[in-house]
């Protein structure tokens, strides 16, 4: 099914906006309106449009300032100007401003449709080129996985086996182990690699917005829905949809996701039209979904649907052989780290550290070291003095000796929370894992900390 183009019409005259809207809606376009440049800039910054048709002279912000502000914000949506008169000089000036085309008043409907189709073709070419460039960069970056351990070698073998078939994959592992990197690698080794890889962090979406984020919504379906919006399923058509932190998805949303996967179609929020699904689903989680199923916190039928081909990524502390190669690779990723070296003592210290935040924590540590050694361009064990290896005792229990004078328990608790956040690079999900808490309980602790400070 072809995508419906969305056009924003900008004019301070309601009569002109409504006339253009009627003309274009008859051709099946989705239309939104703005009363001036300031209103239009707010809309294009918040939403996605395929074309903007704008008057030049308007109060608040005129058409020329609008297109300049759009380009400053790297919004490349083509703009067509409406003008009461046009000379050769004014036409050249409009093109210099960045306009894709212009139309003079009064205009007939046939010329409007020709101009719109021409501008939309330009919009498609711009979007395709941008996405192709991004895909090529990502494909190059994901061409090689950095590892030396046998355990990661086993993971890579599984990735090679499953990449060529359209099977649902569930990637398991602690936060920061590189689950999204593995998902991207599967995508770029698959037959869908020419199309989009669309990541969605289920933990970062509030429960009342999950459905609109995944399936999109129709104009007027709820307060603030000023125009139709495609969801991630539509955006990923032909490609791969990566649902990260799937274990954090609310139960009622899990049912709608299951229906979309089973029936291979869905409806936008507030809509009745059945939209076909053509995406590969890859899910990831740092939680034990089987336990959640037993606790009625995750749907059993959805678990079976997404757990066709599970891949478990070992934490970094269980694959010490990968630490230094990853550190060397991460050094090269920073523009100011390409000439840096790392001493044997620093390598030993990296290997001794337990890496509770896994590869994400390693990346943060390497970036910090590169900044600290910009002059010497050599990372030594002294550079890594801020790393404090403190692995828990057997069985995961930590023995804390009570000082003779006692302690304030809440102060100890707050200190541990801060240390966990620091070790996790301020990632709350990872910090909660380090503390053996759920993300929601950690948020309650942080709220209490703010209240007592």
TrEMBL record:
<keyword id="KW-0805">Transcription regulation</keyword>
<dbReference type="InterPro" id="IPR003593">
    <property type="entry name" value="AAA+_ATPase"/>
</dbReference>
<keyword id="KW-0175">Coiled coil</keyword>
<dbReference type="InterPro" id="IPR058031">
    <property type="entry name" value="AAA_lid_NorR"/>
</dbReference>
<keyword id="KW-0804">Transcription</keyword>
<dbReference type="InterPro" id="IPR001789">
    <property type="entry name" value="Sig_transdc_resp-reg_receiver"/>
</dbReference>
<dbReference type="GO" id="GO:0043565">
    <property type="term" value="F:sequence-specific DNA binding"/>
</dbReference>
<keyword id="KW-0597">Phosphoprotein</keyword>
<dbReference type="Pfam" id="PF00072">
    <property type="entry name" value="Response_reg"/>
</dbReference>
<keyword id="KW-0067">ATP-binding</keyword>
<dbReference type="InterPro" id="IPR027417">
    <property type="entry name" value="P-loop_NTPase"/>
</dbReference>
<keyword id="KW-0238">DNA-binding</keyword>
<feature type="domain" description="Sigma-54 factor interaction">
    <location>
        <begin position="145"/>
        <end position="371"/>
    </location>
</feature>
<dbReference type="InterPro" id="IPR009057">
    <property type="entry name" value="Homeodomain-like_sf"/>
</dbReference>
<dbReference type="GO" id="GO:0005524">
    <property type="term" value="F:ATP binding"/>
</dbReference>
<keyword id="KW-0547">Nucleotide-binding</keyword>
<dbReference type="InterPro" id="IPR011006">
    <property type="entry name" value="CheY-like_superfamily"/>
</dbReference>
<dbReference type="InterPro" id="IPR002078">
    <property type="entry name" value="Sigma_54_int"/>
</dbReference>
<dbReference type="InterPro" id="IPR002197">
    <property type="entry name" value="HTH_Fis"/>
</dbReference>
<keyword id="KW-0902">Two-component regulatory system</keyword>
<feature type="modified residue" description="4-aspartylphosphate">
    <location>
        <position position="55"/>
    </location>
</feature>
<feature type="coiled-coil region">
    <location>
        <begin position="122"/>
        <end position="149"/>
    </location>
</feature>
<dbReference type="GO" id="GO:0006355">
    <property type="term" value="P:regulation of DNA-templated transcription"/>
</dbReference>
<protein>
    <submittedName>
        <fullName>AtoC: acetoacetate metabolism regulatory protein</fullName>
    </submittedName>
</protein>
<dbReference type="Pfam" id="PF00158">
    <property type="entry name" value="Sigma54_activat"/>
</dbReference>
<feature type="domain" description="Response regulatory">
    <location>
        <begin position="6"/>
        <end position="120"/>
    </location>
</feature>
<dbReference type="Pfam" id="PF02954">
    <property type="entry name" value="HTH_8"/>
</dbReference>
<dbReference type="GO" id="GO:0000160">
    <property type="term" value="P:phosphorelay signal transduction system"/>
</dbReference>
<dbReference type="InterPro" id="IPR025944">
    <property type="entry name" value="Sigma_54_int_dom_CS"/>
</dbReference>
<dbReference type="InterPro" id="IPR025662">
    <property type="entry name" value="Sigma_54_int_dom_ATP-bd_1"/>
</dbReference>
<dbReference type="Pfam" id="PF25601">
    <property type="entry name" value="AAA_lid_14"/>
</dbReference>
């Amino acid at each position: 099914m072809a995508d419906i183009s969305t056009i924003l019409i900008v004019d301070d005259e309601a009569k002109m906006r409504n006339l253009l809207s009627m003309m274009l809606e008859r051709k099946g376009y989705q239309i939104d309106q703005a009363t001036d440049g300031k209103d239009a800039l707010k809309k294009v910054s918040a939403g996605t449009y395929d074309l903007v048709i704008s008057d030049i002279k308007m109060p608040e912000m005129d058409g020329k300032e609008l297109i300049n502000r759009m380009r400053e914000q790297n919004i490349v949506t083509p703009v067509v100007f409406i003008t009461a008169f046009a000379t050769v000089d004014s036409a050249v000036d409009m093109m210099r401003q960045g306009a894709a085309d212009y139309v003079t008043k009064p205009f007939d409907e046939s010329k409007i449709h020709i101009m719109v189709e021409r501008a939309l073709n330009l919009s498609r070419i711009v979007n395709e080129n941008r996405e192709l460039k991004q895909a090529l960069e990502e494909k190059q970056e994901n061409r090689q996985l950095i590892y030396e351990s046998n355990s990661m070698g086993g993971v890579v073998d599984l990735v090679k086996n499953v990449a060529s078939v359209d099977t649902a994959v569930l990637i398991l592992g602690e936060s920061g182990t590189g689950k999204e990197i593995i998902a991207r690698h599967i995508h770029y080794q698959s037959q869908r690699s020419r199309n989009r890889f669309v990541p969605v962090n289920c933990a970062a979406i509030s429960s009342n917005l999950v459905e609109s984020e995944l399936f999109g919504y129709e104009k007027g379906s709820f307060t603030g829905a000023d125009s139709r919006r495609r969801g991630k399923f539509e955006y990923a058509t032909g490609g791969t949809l990566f649902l990260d932190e799937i274990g954090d998805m609310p139960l009622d949303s899990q049912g709608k996701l299951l229906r979309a996967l089973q029936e291979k179609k869905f409806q936008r929020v507030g809509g009745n039209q059945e939209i076909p699904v053509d995406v590969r689903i890859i899910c990831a989680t740092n939680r034990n979904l089987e336990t959640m199923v037993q606790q009625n916190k995750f749907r059993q039928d959805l678990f079976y649907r997404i757990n066709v081909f599970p891949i478990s990524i070992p934490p970094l502390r269980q694959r010490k052989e990968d630490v230094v190669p990853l550190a060397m690779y991460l050094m090269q990723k920073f523009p100011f780290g390409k000439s840096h070296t790392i001493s044997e003592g620093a390598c030993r210290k990296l290997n001794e550290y337990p890496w509770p935040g896994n590869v994400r924590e390693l990346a943060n540590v390497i970036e910090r070291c590169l900044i600290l050694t910009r002059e010497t361009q050599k990372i030594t064990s002294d550079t890594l003095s801020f790393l404090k290896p403190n692995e828990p005792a057997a069985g995961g229990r930590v023995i804390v000796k009570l000082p003779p004078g006692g302690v304030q328990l809440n102060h100890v608790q707050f200190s541990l929370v801060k240390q966990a956040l620091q070790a996790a690079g301020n990632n709350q999900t990872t910090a909660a894992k380090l503390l053996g808490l759920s993300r929601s309980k950690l948020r309650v602790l942080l709220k209490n900390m703010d209240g007592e400070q």
